[in-house]
Amino acid sequence: MKILKEYRSVPVKWGAILLLLCFFSSGYAQQKPKYLDPQQPVSERVKDLMGRMSLDMKIAQMCQYVGLEHMRDAEKNITEEELLSGHARGFYKGLHSSGVERMVKQGLIGSFLHVLTIEEANHLQKLAEESPLKIPLLMGIDAIHGNGLMSGSTIYPSPITMASTFAPDLIEESFRQTALEMRATGMHWAFSPNIEIARDPRWGRVGETFGEDPYLVSQMGIASVRGLQMDKLDKDKSVLACVKHMAGGGIGNNGTNASPVEIGEGELRNVILAPFKATIRQTQPFSLMPAHNEINGTPGHADKWLLTEVARNEYGFKGFIISDWMDMERLSQTHRIAATIKEAFQISVDAGVDMHMHGPGFLESIKELIEEGKLSEERINRACEKILEAKFMLGLFENRYADPKNLSETVFIKEHRQTALEIARKGIVLLKNKNNILPIAVNKYKNILVTGPNADNQSIMGDWVFDQPRSNYKTVLDGIKMLSEGSNVNYVDVGWNLRDLNNDSITKAIETADKMDLIILALGEDSFRQHWKEKTAGENRDRMDITLWGKQQYLVEELKKSGKPIVVVLVNGRPLATPWLEENVDAILEAWEPGSFGGQAVAEILYGKVNPSGKLPITIPRHVGQIPIYYYHKPSQYSHAFIDGAKEPLYDFGYGLSYTDFQYSELKCPKDLKYGEPLHVTLTVENTGEMEGEEVVQLYLKDDFSSTTRPVKLLVGFRRIHLEKGEKKTMVFSLDKEVFGYYNNKGKYVFEPGSFTLMVGGSSLGKDQIFQKVTVNN
Questions:
Q1: Taking a C-beta distance cutoff of 8 angstroms, is the pair 316, 278 a contact?
Q2: Is residue 142 annotated as a catalytic residue, yes or no?
Q3: Cα–Cα distance for residue pair 462/164, rounded to 1 Å
Q4: Residue 729 phi/psi, 5° resolution?
Q5: Could you report the per-residue pLDDT of 3-56, keeping only the tens digit for each?
Q6: Which domains does the chain have, with CATH numbers?
Q7: Tens-place pLDDT, residues 112-122
Q8: Which of 200, 213, 303, 324 is catalytic?
Q9: pTM for this structure?
Q10: CA dihedral in degrees (202, 573, 206, 115; nearest 10)?
Q11: Cα(767)–Cα(369) distance, rounded to whole angstroms?
């Protein structure tokens, strides 16, 4: 300023003034850090920022904490013992939320999870902007099927329902919309998709998976990551995906979350790791999460072979790995492979984990381990670089705040609501339809009784959803009232809490049934996260049995005595063993957890506005004693029958009825093929029924003879098609060489020449299947 004043006192030429201004402008540009210049390549920005960071700042980027409001709520509502044994709610003993705020201002926290309002997200970012290098925070949230932990979000059907659609393009769109809603609320990172194979229905988390089949789960995982991240991360529209949990959580020894797994490397690679391999190679998810459990004696968070050698070096994973909820600590406290938590941190980081979820102690321990020579600063640099890269690619250095004014234009908008409804329509599965009682004809039933614990509450939402505005969802009762023209709908509320249904109301429902012409009964389970203490399914709600919970079986058996036709709508996240229902009620609709507009979709199917087309993504057993049960079992699995029951499942993988009929014919392919050449398969499907409908065409392959036993069949292709009444379509599938090879019992990938059998139909074991042989040679 002094120089400028001196120049004002004497005449000067305009050219000289311009030259002087350019000089000052150039000087200012040189002072601006390169990492704050959005015109610079991301790699250069990362390099520049890393050069300005202390070791503490680098380790801080690896530290994630829970949100301030989450901490305050947890402090009031859970004990320290519950904190240590749980996986969902947390606070930090001895660390007040104001201390966390100070740490953010000091640049000592890199990420948060469980921040549930836009106001808190912006508040934390404002604190981070006051830190020495102004590094923005990465906000993660469990957006499993929509951003359900935030009020007002679009709640899509749960992943098990999504998988029942066999429509990856539709699922990709739902995750694309989820990403937009997340960014509008200040979130940047979805802890999704869960691409574990679910083969044990006792496990409470089945509902957040895509089922039992490696190929179907892979296709849904690929679609989910593409939806969240797009082909390339967009600084305004994308969020980071997180493929989880690597690996084996869905096949635990006793069906409980985090229980151990013993499995051969061949089966591990052929089935459990197959979705991770396909999803990583085809979409490059930016983050990955290990599993709670151990495989063959090595906990997931300590498994360097799995996380580094397989995921990074073999599959080509290039992102960063985040621990699951305090699972680094559990290497010491639960798995007992480390004497101290500090040692547990060392083992986990050395194995390949780049970020700690969640809480204090990690930064200090990692710094000490570096000083002691037990971890290298180079290892910390690799982790920090990938986390910073994500923040730059998401545009957070330029725009870390979310604008509340944009919420109404992005969240729960018409397009998103329609997608949620369409997934529910295509994901609901018709399991039984005796004498074609469905669809319900208008005016056929004057008086209809609607009852059951899941008839009129948010159990339709599934897990990972908190309370939503009442105007934002349609229950089963809502849907039936919308479409029951000409009928009197009589609702008896028996209570929503499956653990304590109301006896007086049950008696009232039974008495009311005598005056009714039709009974619609909504049964099942409750995964709704808002019902944390009452829920019977979802995270950490594993069961010893999989029958109807509590008094539900009594209710339906008593209603059966009325002699009135009964339609059961199942709302549940895990397969339930319900052979009595199959034998005794007139129709069964597996709605799974159909989301915000699930009740509308259920009613549309009941009344024939929509033809059911969902197919089961997981086998449903008759009894818990059949577990494990899945369609791709080995040939000897059922060499001997049970002496006290049928060996066949209650419902097969891929099964689902329609209001119309489909006929398969003309399955053709070359009789001989050279390995490496694609196999082109054609077939014809015709709608031979009386109304239009959609069919999921399923193509299976069997290796007829092999040196290591192979499954009786494996899904290798599927296609959802729409056919008008009487319409016929020719389908074409192209199979690449990978479907003919496998990992043997030594974990080695092999191809063995020989004959293979192709099978195509509307389910894995349906009577409509047709067959064709092909010989594949070297």
A1: no
A2: no
A3: 15
A4: -135, 145
A5: 333 333 334 444 544 444 444 444 444 578 999 999 999 999 999 999 999 999
A6: 1-31 (no CATH), 414-626 (3.40.50.1700), 662-777 (2.60.40.10)
A7: 999 999 999 99
A8: 324
A9: 0.93
A10: -120
A11: 63
